[in-house]
User: Fold this.
Amino acid sequence: MAGHGRVVVAQRDADDAGPLLPHAAVRLSAGRQEMTEEAQALCFMGGVNSIFVGDALLTTPNPEPTSDAALLARVGLRPLADGSR
Assistant:
């Protein structure tokens, strides 16, 4: 349960940022490996509209691209190749 507080804070921030800044890129970034898929899905539902994809973000590993694609498909989202909205 040690990482739980950080996930709750991230979810609350996403819930606040999405509606307040509808044209902003609200990203889930470093530490997603430590979040459950359910927590990540809640962040998307709360307004997150972007993730960092790749091997690592600075020194923090990111999930595999196939894992990200599967998560997006499960929550009914699709990646945009050119980054447009």
About this structure: The two ends are 35 Å apart (CA to CA). Confidence is low (pLDDT under 50) at residues 1-9.
